[in-house]
Every structure is written in structure tokens, then in C-alpha cells.
Amino acid sequence: MKTVLVTGSAGFIGYFLCTRLLKDGFRVIGLDAMTDYYDVRLKERRQQMLLQHENFQAVNERIEAPDVLMSLFRLETPDFVIHLAAQAGVRYSIEEPRSYLESNLCGTFELLEAARAFPPEHMLLASTSSAYGANTEMPYTETDKADHQMSFYAATKKATESMAHSYAHLFGLPVTMFRFFTVYGPWGRPDMALFKFTKAILEDRPIDVYNYGDMKRDFTYVEDLVEGIRLLMDAVPQRPAEGEGVPEGDSLSPVAPWRVVNIGNSTSVRLTDFIEAIETATGEKAERNLMPIQPGDVPATWANASLLQSLTGYRPKTSVTDGVTRFVEWYREYYGV
């Protein structure tokens, strides 16, 4: 039985990923700090459900705390590492940038140092579509330059890509960075639009619609994202042999076993259409409070997922209508509304 270390295991994506890995027969060590960025009760409930499985072990520690990860690697020597733990949220990074520095940069450094000492077969680290920043040519492709991040959150995630590349080059650590696009679904984060909109609509309160509704997002259903991560575990990057070039369309580094892969639905959906899907699922109309775009936000995202498909044969496919309906059904059941 192979062991997978998942950081951020009690988070939204982490919960679904750990559930999938346990189902597939892995032993899973879940590391999570259980921070109060949003309602800790959601994280506690996710973790409680994971602990029902005999092959899941929970470790509640901060990744940036010195020696936490080194000790864990020394004790468990994980075969795979999937690094999801991070301080999330574009707008919050304007208010509390230090938490992003500590969790995203220092935490990733601690992880890379532990992997250097006890190398796993493959490391998969979460980045974000926000790394594309000010890019306007879409759909976003992994080989595009991504030099102009629009928020400190995005800047820290882009920095972790470079940090991981340097360790992959220097120490031969196989690393896949995955950039995910607006992930949503049941058990989602309360600070995300779907959760906030659904809650407000069911409580007969107006919703804040930024950029006056002129926003587009590549909404990706959480189980589609997890399927992509699971399949990428087996697509271990290898440093190109001397004299060999990088295949066309591949983001593989020419000097390291490192690549970055988009995981998105390959569809850019208008925010107004997303809201209409929530209205249909709830059976209620939303009162819309139109507002200007917020600092750090980008007006649109759209993934080219061709590399994911060429590496794994898979492409996300859940429609916004189906995904939103599943979320609203979960929300009503969980909160009894």
C-alpha cells in the first residue's frame, strides 16, 4: 500500500482528493492546520468523515512551522505528496498579506526541504489560474508567459512554481504544478461566490455582483479537478535527455523533471449565466447589487486543457448547470433550508 501525504486535507479540495485516494487503496496522511479563515466547523466535519476510514491519518499542524514536515517525512517517507495547503483568497491577500507569505512561501519551502531529504516518487503542488494575471489572450496555455500577477495571492503561488522548479533542477525531484480554475461544488468554501450567492438568495438578501456582472470564469467542478490530479499522479515528469527538445505544447522544463498543467473545464462562463444557474437550482430570483471590479480581480479566465488530456486522456466535463444543482442540494441538506 503506497502512502500519499496530502497537505490541506480538511479543506474543500483536500477532502474530495483524500476521499478519492482512500477509495483507490492508498494510505493517506492528511496534514491541516484547521485555521479559522472560514468556518472551522466545515473543516472539522470533513476531517471527521475522513477519519472514518482506517487508512486515513490526520495531523493537525501548520506546514510553515519548522521541523513539522521534516519530521513527518522522516517518519512516513511518503511515496507521493500532494500539496494543497495555502492561504487562499485574492481579496484577503490585500488585507493580510503576511499570512500568504508565511503559509504559501515559507510552508512550501519547508515542504521542498523535507522532500529534498526524503524524496518521494512524485510531488504535485497546487498553483492557480490567477498566476496568468494580466494575460488577455485566451484560452490560457501553460507555455504562455505569466509575469504580471494582479494580487499578492497570485504572486505567492507563482513564486512557489519557481521555487519548486529550482528544487526539481538541483535535486532531481519530479514535480507537477497544477493550475486550477475556479473550483466549486458541495462542501465548498463560504468565501467563494457560489456559497455566498446561494446563502444570500435563500435568505432573501441581495448579492454583490462585481464588475457590473461583466465577469467570466472557467468554473471547474471539484470532482473533475480531483480526477485530473489523480491521473496526473501517474504522469511523472522526466528531465529531457541531453540533445532532446521539449515536445510541442508541453510545459516540461528543458532542465528539470518539472511541468505545469492547467486543470479547467475549458469553458468561460459569464457570471450572469452562473447566477441564473443558481436561481434555477434554488427556485428563487436574485436581487443583484452591481458593483465595480475589486482590486486584484481579473475580468476573465479560460483554460486550455489540451496538455492535461494528452498526458492523461482526461478532460473535465461537468456542466455548470449540473455542478451548481449538486451544490445547492448539498447546501439545503447540510444547513436544513
Structural class: alpha/beta
Oligomeric organization of the protein chains? single chain
Q: Specify the biggest β-sheet.
A: 7 strands, parallel
How much helicity do the residues have? 25-40%
Pfam family, one: Epimerase
Domain NAD-dependent epimerase/dehydratase: 4-235
Keywords: NAD
Organism: Roseibium aggregatum
Task: Please provide a written account of the structure.
This protein has 337 residues and is an alpha/beta fold. The chain has one domain: Rossmann fold, CATH 3.40.50.720. The protein contains 11 helices and 13 strands. The protein has helices at residues 12-23, 40-50, 68-76, 92-95, 97-117, 152-171, 193-202, 222-232, 271-282, 306-312, 320-335, and strands spanning 3-7, 27-31, 56-59, 80-83, 122-128, 175-180, 183-184, 207-209, 216-217, 220-221, 258-263, 269-270, 288-290. A 7-stranded parallel beta sheet has the order 3-2-1-4-5-6-11, with helices on both faces. The chain has a two-stranded parallel sheet with strand order 7-10. Strands 8-13 form a two-stranded parallel sheet. The longest helix has 21 residues, at 97-117. InterPro entries: Epimerase_deHydtase (IPR001509), NAD(P)-bd_dom_sf (IPR036291). It comes from Roseibium aggregatum. Pfam families: Epimerase.
